[in-house]
Request: fold
Amino acid sequence: MKKLKRSGRLVDMTNFMLQNPHKLISLTHFSERYQSAKSSISEDLAIIKEIFEGQSIGSLLTIPGASGGVKYIPMVNKKEAEKIISSLCTTLAVSDRILPGGYLYMMDILGSPKLMNEVGRLFAGFFANHKIDAIMTVATKGIPIAYAVGHYLDVPVSIVRRDHRVTEGSMVSINYVSGSSKRIQTMSLARRSLEAGANVLIIDDFMKAGGTVRGMMDLLEEFQANVIGIGVLVESEEAEERLVDDYISIARLDKVDVKGKEISVEPGNFIRLLKTELKEDVYESSTNE
Reply:
Protein backbone atom coordinates (compact mmCIF):
# COMPACT_ATOMS: atom_id res chain seq x y z
CA MET A 1 0.00 0.00 0.00
CA LYS A 2 1.26 3.43 -0.91
CA LYS A 3 1.93 5.97 1.82
CA LEU A 4 -1.29 7.68 2.94
CA LYS A 5 -2.03 11.01 4.55
CA ARG A 6 -3.46 10.94 8.07
CA SER A 7 -7.04 11.26 6.81
CA GLY A 8 -6.53 8.24 4.56
CA ARG A 9 -4.89 6.25 7.34
CA LEU A 10 -7.77 6.95 9.70
CA VAL A 11 -10.37 5.77 7.20
CA ASP A 12 -8.49 2.62 6.24
CA MET A 13 -7.51 1.80 9.83
CA THR A 14 -11.09 2.23 11.04
CA ASN A 15 -12.41 -0.03 8.30
CA PHE A 16 -9.71 -2.63 9.02
CA MET A 17 -10.62 -2.83 12.70
CA LEU A 18 -14.37 -2.92 12.07
CA GLN A 19 -13.76 -5.91 9.80
CA ASN A 20 -11.57 -7.64 12.41
CA PRO A 21 -13.29 -7.40 15.82
CA HIS A 22 -11.61 -9.04 18.82
CA LYS A 23 -8.44 -9.62 16.80
CA LEU A 24 -5.15 -8.39 18.24
CA ILE A 25 -3.38 -6.21 15.68
CA SER A 26 0.21 -5.15 16.29
CA LEU A 27 1.37 -1.58 15.83
CA THR A 28 4.08 -2.98 13.56
CA HIS A 29 1.37 -4.22 11.20
CA PHE A 30 -0.12 -0.75 10.87
CA SER A 31 3.30 0.89 10.71
CA GLU A 32 4.34 -1.30 7.76
CA ARG A 33 0.92 -1.08 6.12
CA TYR A 34 0.98 2.72 6.04
CA GLN A 35 4.76 3.26 5.98
CA SER A 36 4.44 5.46 9.05
CA ALA A 37 6.17 5.72 12.42
CA LYS A 38 4.62 3.91 15.36
CA SER A 39 4.25 7.22 17.18
CA SER A 40 1.99 8.45 14.35
CA ILE A 41 0.02 5.20 14.46
CA SER A 42 -0.50 5.59 18.21
CA GLU A 43 -1.86 9.10 17.67
CA ASP A 44 -4.24 7.80 14.99
CA LEU A 45 -5.48 5.06 17.30
CA ALA A 46 -6.14 7.59 20.05
CA ILE A 47 -8.39 9.54 17.67
CA ILE A 48 -10.25 6.40 16.59
CA LYS A 49 -10.64 5.28 20.20
CA GLU A 50 -12.22 8.61 21.15
CA ILE A 51 -14.71 8.43 18.27
CA PHE A 52 -15.54 4.75 18.79
CA GLU A 53 -16.30 5.23 22.48
CA GLY A 54 -18.03 8.58 22.00
CA GLN A 55 -20.34 7.18 19.32
CA SER A 56 -20.87 3.85 21.16
CA ILE A 57 -19.33 1.88 18.28
CA GLY A 58 -17.10 -0.01 20.69
CA SER A 59 -13.82 0.29 22.48
CA LEU A 60 -10.16 -0.04 21.56
CA LEU A 61 -8.17 -2.15 23.97
CA THR A 62 -4.44 -1.41 23.96
CA ILE A 63 -2.14 -4.22 25.08
CA PRO A 64 1.44 -3.11 25.86
CA GLY A 65 4.61 -5.10 25.30
CA ALA A 66 6.45 -6.68 22.40
CA SER A 67 3.58 -9.07 21.68
CA GLY A 68 0.90 -6.45 22.29
CA GLY A 69 -1.14 -4.27 20.00
CA VAL A 70 -4.66 -2.99 19.72
CA LYS A 71 -7.99 -4.82 19.68
CA TYR A 72 -11.44 -3.54 18.66
CA ILE A 73 -14.18 -4.65 21.07
CA PRO A 74 -17.74 -4.13 19.74
CA MET A 75 -19.97 -2.75 22.50
CA VAL A 76 -23.53 -1.55 22.98
CA ASN A 77 -25.15 0.97 25.29
CA LYS A 78 -28.60 1.13 26.79
CA LYS A 79 -29.98 3.77 24.44
CA GLU A 80 -28.92 1.97 21.27
CA ALA A 81 -30.02 -1.43 22.57
CA GLU A 82 -33.45 -0.08 23.49
CA LYS A 83 -33.90 1.34 19.99
CA ILE A 84 -32.99 -1.95 18.28
CA ILE A 85 -35.13 -4.05 20.61
CA SER A 86 -38.13 -1.72 20.38
CA SER A 87 -38.01 -1.91 16.59
CA LEU A 88 -37.79 -5.71 16.73
CA CYS A 89 -40.77 -5.97 19.10
CA THR A 90 -42.86 -3.75 16.81
CA THR A 91 -41.96 -5.91 13.82
CA LEU A 92 -42.82 -9.13 15.67
CA ALA A 93 -46.20 -7.82 16.87
CA VAL A 94 -47.75 -7.69 13.37
CA SER A 95 -50.85 -9.91 13.39
CA ASP A 96 -50.09 -11.40 9.95
CA ARG A 97 -47.28 -13.37 11.61
CA ILE A 98 -49.71 -15.76 13.30
CA LEU A 99 -49.56 -19.23 11.75
CA PRO A 100 -51.93 -22.18 12.29
CA GLY A 101 -51.39 -23.68 15.73
CA GLY A 102 -50.36 -20.37 17.26
CA TYR A 103 -46.85 -20.39 15.79
CA LEU A 104 -45.11 -17.19 14.74
CA TYR A 105 -43.62 -16.52 11.30
CA MET A 106 -40.04 -15.25 11.79
CA MET A 107 -38.18 -16.20 8.62
CA ASP A 108 -38.20 -12.65 7.26
CA ILE A 109 -36.53 -11.46 10.47
CA LEU A 110 -33.98 -14.27 10.50
CA GLY A 111 -33.36 -13.63 6.80
CA SER A 112 -32.58 -9.94 7.25
CA PRO A 113 -28.77 -9.45 7.22
CA LYS A 114 -29.09 -5.94 8.67
CA LEU A 115 -31.28 -7.02 11.60
CA MET A 116 -29.22 -10.14 12.32
CA ASN A 117 -26.11 -7.97 12.27
CA GLU A 118 -27.65 -5.70 14.91
CA VAL A 119 -28.74 -8.64 17.06
CA GLY A 120 -25.30 -10.20 16.70
CA ARG A 121 -23.68 -7.00 17.97
CA LEU A 122 -26.08 -6.90 20.94
CA PHE A 123 -25.11 -10.38 22.08
CA ALA A 124 -21.42 -9.86 21.28
CA GLY A 125 -21.38 -6.60 23.23
CA PHE A 126 -23.07 -8.25 26.20
CA PHE A 127 -20.55 -11.10 26.32
CA ALA A 128 -17.55 -8.98 25.28
CA ASN A 129 -15.80 -9.44 28.63
CA HIS A 130 -16.12 -13.24 28.62
CA LYS A 131 -13.61 -15.68 27.20
CA ILE A 132 -15.55 -17.46 24.46
CA ASP A 133 -14.03 -20.02 22.10
CA ALA A 134 -17.09 -20.95 20.02
CA ILE A 135 -20.76 -20.28 19.36
CA MET A 136 -23.20 -23.21 19.38
CA THR A 137 -26.64 -23.26 17.77
CA VAL A 138 -29.07 -25.81 16.40
CA ALA A 139 -29.94 -26.00 12.69
CA THR A 140 -31.46 -24.26 11.01
CA LYS A 141 -33.12 -21.08 12.25
CA GLY A 142 -30.48 -20.24 14.82
CA ILE A 143 -27.68 -20.19 12.23
CA PRO A 144 -28.04 -16.55 11.01
CA ILE A 145 -27.90 -15.19 14.55
CA ALA A 146 -25.03 -17.46 15.55
CA TYR A 147 -22.88 -16.39 12.60
CA ALA A 148 -23.56 -12.72 13.33
CA VAL A 149 -22.45 -13.19 16.96
CA GLY A 150 -19.48 -15.27 15.85
CA HIS A 151 -18.34 -12.49 13.52
CA TYR A 152 -18.35 -9.84 16.24
CA LEU A 153 -16.61 -12.14 18.74
CA ASP A 154 -14.22 -13.55 16.10
CA VAL A 155 -14.97 -17.17 17.03
CA PRO A 156 -16.20 -20.18 14.99
CA VAL A 157 -19.76 -21.52 14.97
CA SER A 158 -20.64 -25.13 15.83
CA ILE A 159 -23.95 -26.29 14.36
CA VAL A 160 -25.97 -28.97 16.13
CA ARG A 161 -28.15 -31.09 13.85
CA ARG A 162 -31.08 -33.43 14.35
CA ASP A 163 -29.81 -35.72 11.61
CA HIS A 164 -26.46 -37.23 10.66
CA ARG A 165 -24.36 -35.75 7.85
CA VAL A 166 -21.76 -38.03 6.31
CA THR A 167 -19.75 -34.97 5.24
CA GLU A 168 -19.16 -34.02 8.89
CA GLY A 169 -17.41 -37.22 9.92
CA SER A 170 -18.05 -39.00 13.20
CA MET A 171 -20.73 -37.48 15.41
CA VAL A 172 -21.59 -37.30 19.10
CA SER A 173 -25.32 -37.80 19.63
CA ILE A 174 -27.62 -37.54 22.63
CA ASN A 175 -31.32 -37.94 23.28
CA TYR A 176 -33.19 -35.06 24.89
CA VAL A 177 -36.77 -34.31 25.87
CA SER A 178 -38.51 -31.46 24.05
CA GLY A 179 -39.72 -29.01 26.67
CA SER A 180 -42.99 -28.22 24.91
CA SER A 181 -44.05 -31.54 23.34
CA LYS A 182 -42.32 -33.78 25.92
CA ARG A 183 -41.12 -36.01 23.09
CA ILE A 184 -37.72 -37.68 23.03
CA GLN A 185 -35.60 -36.35 20.18
CA THR A 186 -31.99 -36.68 19.04
CA MET A 187 -29.34 -34.05 18.38
CA SER A 188 -25.81 -34.53 17.07
CA LEU A 189 -22.57 -32.57 16.73
CA ALA A 190 -19.47 -33.44 14.74
CA ARG A 191 -16.56 -34.52 16.96
CA ARG A 192 -14.25 -32.05 15.22
CA SER A 193 -16.53 -29.10 16.01
CA LEU A 194 -15.26 -28.48 19.51
CA GLU A 195 -12.15 -29.07 21.54
CA ALA A 196 -12.30 -30.41 25.08
CA GLY A 197 -12.61 -27.63 27.64
CA ALA A 198 -13.89 -25.05 25.11
CA ASN A 199 -15.88 -22.10 26.42
CA VAL A 200 -19.13 -21.97 24.48
CA LEU A 201 -21.90 -19.42 24.03
CA ILE A 202 -25.25 -21.03 23.12
CA ILE A 203 -27.47 -19.05 20.72
CA ASP A 204 -31.05 -19.92 19.72
CA ASP A 205 -33.79 -18.13 17.79
CA PHE A 206 -36.79 -19.11 19.94
CA MET A 207 -37.21 -20.64 23.37
CA LYS A 208 -40.42 -21.89 24.93
CA ALA A 209 -39.73 -24.40 27.68
CA GLY A 210 -36.03 -24.58 26.83
CA GLY A 211 -35.76 -28.26 25.91
CA THR A 212 -33.55 -27.61 22.89
CA VAL A 213 -31.20 -25.35 24.85
CA ARG A 214 -31.05 -27.91 27.67
CA GLY A 215 -30.21 -30.56 25.09
CA MET A 216 -27.31 -28.46 23.78
CA MET A 217 -26.06 -27.99 27.34
CA ASP A 218 -26.12 -31.77 27.86
CA LEU A 219 -24.34 -32.27 24.53
CA LEU A 220 -21.58 -29.89 25.63
CA GLU A 221 -20.97 -32.10 28.66
CA GLU A 222 -20.07 -34.91 26.25
CA PHE A 223 -17.35 -32.62 24.87
CA GLN A 224 -16.26 -31.57 28.38
CA ALA A 225 -16.99 -28.02 27.26
CA ASN A 226 -18.18 -25.09 29.39
CA VAL A 227 -21.39 -23.14 28.91
CA ILE A 228 -20.42 -19.47 29.26
CA GLY A 229 -23.83 -18.06 28.44
CA ILE A 230 -27.14 -18.54 26.65
CA GLY A 231 -28.69 -15.99 24.30
CA VAL A 232 -32.12 -16.30 22.67
CA LEU A 233 -33.74 -13.93 20.20
CA VAL A 234 -37.32 -14.50 21.42
CA GLU A 235 -38.61 -16.28 24.50
CA SER A 236 -42.20 -17.31 25.12
CA GLU A 237 -44.06 -16.60 28.34
CA GLU A 238 -46.43 -19.52 27.77
CA ALA A 239 -44.07 -22.15 29.16
CA GLU A 240 -45.41 -23.76 32.33
CA GLU A 241 -42.01 -25.07 33.36
CA ARG A 242 -38.73 -23.58 32.11
CA LEU A 243 -35.87 -26.06 31.79
CA VAL A 244 -33.30 -23.25 31.61
CA ASP A 245 -33.01 -20.42 34.13
CA ASP A 246 -29.89 -18.40 33.31
CA TYR A 247 -30.26 -16.87 29.84
CA ILE A 248 -30.42 -13.56 27.96
CA SER A 249 -33.42 -12.74 25.75
CA ILE A 250 -33.85 -9.91 23.26
CA ALA A 251 -37.67 -10.05 23.07
CA ARG A 252 -40.44 -11.80 25.01
CA LEU A 253 -43.57 -13.17 23.36
CA ASP A 254 -46.23 -12.41 25.96
CA LYS A 255 -49.39 -13.62 24.18
CA VAL A 256 -50.59 -14.96 20.84
CA ASP A 257 -54.35 -14.69 20.37
CA VAL A 258 -55.09 -16.81 17.29
CA LYS A 259 -58.82 -16.10 17.36
CA GLY A 260 -58.47 -12.35 17.86
CA LYS A 261 -55.34 -12.19 15.68
CA GLU A 262 -53.36 -10.28 18.28
CA ILE A 263 -49.71 -10.62 19.25
CA SER A 264 -48.22 -9.08 22.38
CA VAL A 265 -44.43 -8.68 22.36
CA GLU A 266 -42.28 -6.88 24.91
CA PRO A 267 -38.53 -6.47 25.48
CA GLY A 268 -36.75 -9.44 27.04
CA ASN A 269 -34.35 -9.27 29.97
CA PHE A 270 -31.43 -7.97 27.88
CA ILE A 271 -31.73 -4.31 28.89
CA ARG A 272 -32.23 -5.13 32.56
CA LEU A 273 -29.11 -7.30 32.64
CA LEU A 274 -26.94 -5.09 30.42
CA LYS A 275 -25.89 -2.63 33.11
CA THR A 276 -24.83 -5.31 35.56
CA GLU A 277 -22.82 -7.11 32.86
CA LEU A 278 -20.83 -4.11 31.69
CA LYS A 279 -18.41 -2.25 33.89
CA GLU A 280 -20.10 0.72 35.55
CA ASP A 281 -17.80 3.36 34.08
CA VAL A 282 -18.07 1.96 30.55
CA TYR A 283 -21.84 1.76 30.79
CA GLU A 284 -22.29 5.28 32.11
CA SER A 285 -19.86 6.89 29.67
CA SER A 286 -21.59 5.22 26.72
CA THR A 287 -25.10 6.23 27.80
CA ASN A 288 -24.47 9.86 28.70
CA GLU A 289 -24.63 11.27 25.20
